[in-house]
Amino acid sequence: MTDKKAEKIVAIKGMNDILPADAHLWEIFENTAQSILQSYGFQQIRTPIVEETRLFSRAIGAVTDIVEKEMYSFEDSMNGDKLTLRPEGTAGVVRAVLEHNLTYEGPKRLWYKGQMFRHEKPQRGRYRQFHQIGAEAVGFTGPDVDAELIMLCRRLWDDLGLQNIRLELNSIGDAEERARHRVDLIAYLEKHEDILDAEAKRRLHTNPLRILDTKNPAMQDMVNGAPKLLDYLGAESLAHFEGVQKILKHNNIPYTINTRLVRGIDYYNRTVFEWVTDQLGAQGTVCAGGRYDPLIEMFGGKPTPAVGFAMGVERLIELMRESGETAAPNQCDVYMVHQGEAAQLQSFVLAERLRDAGLDVMLHCATASGAGSFKSQMKKADASGAAFAIIIGEDEVANNTASVKALRGEEGEAQQTSVPFDGVVDHVVDQIVGDHDHDHDHVHYHH
Ligand code: ATP
Ligand code: MG
Q1: What ligand is nearest to the CA atom of residue 286?
Q2: Based on the domain organization, do 62 and 99 belong to the same domain?
Q3: Has residue 212 been placed in a domain?
Q4: What's the CATH number where 161 sits?
């Protein structure tokens, strides 16, 4: 041992821990999303976090933010392979669909969740490791599945009690329509070159469509007057776009058409949409999606239409917090308090039986300060949020009983009952189930 204290190692900038106090919010979000995805027939797929770099540069496109400057790429020190931490989920899912011929028997509805990595400037709502939950519907041609994905999102916001998330919709047509628009757009932007910022100038001949998406206030009037891609759409693209809108209207899903909405990734066509809120400052897009019919062919598969979305989980969790979803659930239903070795052994047996019955049980365990006095154990029981403390001391061991103490009664009426050891499970379950109807916030008995 040296005198010098070891230097503290901390997490990488922009990569956050999710602490226990927040974990319940994540659980609520993920469980709700998962059950809604299932209710629309989506199946989960899990792909690796690391893929070959060329998977992303091919799929996402060389002149996008992500590939130009945001990817965590490295060489495998064992064999020199060029690898990248996934910056998004679609490329990996599409690779897996082709690799395992998943659409062999017909179209597939898939969903995924997990970490994504982008080397961005960390700020509110923008991190270097962040989480997405996404869905990909592969093999469906029509506007119906586009509308279905949008309605799935709407249901999630409703189930989570999230208000103030609005839908913006656009169609970016097909490659030919975009090419015709691009000629006019570049000409227009060149006429206003004095207004373009450095980023826009850089994009003028590589990805001019993305300039329309600028957040620079000085460029807003100029981009508002730019030729609209929507005006360049042919009959088929327009019919598709109208098909989506017809279903949304019929189902009372409000939306606005944002003619400047594009996606930062090359593979999109036709329908694009974003769910946006004003409650999170500058990073207000909580979910973005669209059709990407050309992608699978670009990967060497036979032409297969597809559409999907990705949600930014951190942003949605923050929105849940803003809308008052804070109450952490209790850690357990029952806290086991015990004094002496015989009592400890009996507590272990009882705790297992309570868990068999579906209860969450925390058994007091020793710390550096020892086994803990009765008083200090009762304090821990209170702090745990348990509905009951079960107390086993020398008397209880001698009588083959346990003392069951309700921790959540009105002041003064906190009852303590002596229950024969064999009857404790039934007693506690009865009480908790009986309580459940009018006190379900405090008890998470889950049978
Ligand atoms: P932006 O224009 O904000 O950079 P993007 O076009 O790069 O967004 P997508 O690639 O479409 O975003 O990702 C879908 C969603 O994932 C976003 O709408 C957002 O909610 C979330 N997201 C993207 N990047 C980050 C990040 N660095 N940190 C947290 N969430 C993110
Ligand atoms: Mg981005």
Answers
A1: 1
A2: yes
A3: no
A4: 3.30.930.10
Best residue among 315, 316, 318 to mutate for probing ligand 1's pocket (most ligand atoms within 8 Å of CB) is 315
Condensed to tens digits (0 to 9), the pLDDT of residues 238-275 reads 999 999 999 999 999 999 999 988 876 667 899 999 99
Distance (angstroms) between ligand 2 centre and the Cα of 344 equals 55
The answer to whether residue 14 is domain-embedded is: no
Quote the domain boundaries for residue 307.
20-173+233-322
The H-or-E segment that residue 424 falls in is helix 424-436
% of residues, the chain, pLDDT over 90: 78
Q: Which position has the higher pLDDT, 300 or 1?
A: 300
Question: Would the CA dihedral through 287, 288, 293, 296 be positive or negative?
Answer: negative
376 burial type by CB count under 10 A (0-12 exposed, 13-18 middle, 19+ buried): middle
Residues touching ligand 1 (Cβ under 6 Å) are 88, 118, 120, 125-127, 130, 132, 264, 283, 285-288, 310, 312, 314-315
Ligand 1 atom closest to Cα of 118? 27
CA of 263 to the centre of ligand 1 (A): 10
Evaluate whether 220 touches 196 at the Cβ level (below 8 Å): no
Give residue 11's pLDDT band: very low, low, confident or very high (50, 70, 90): very high
Give the Cα separation of 83 and 73 in Å (integer): 6
Confidence of residue 445 (pLDDT cuts 50, 70, 90): very low
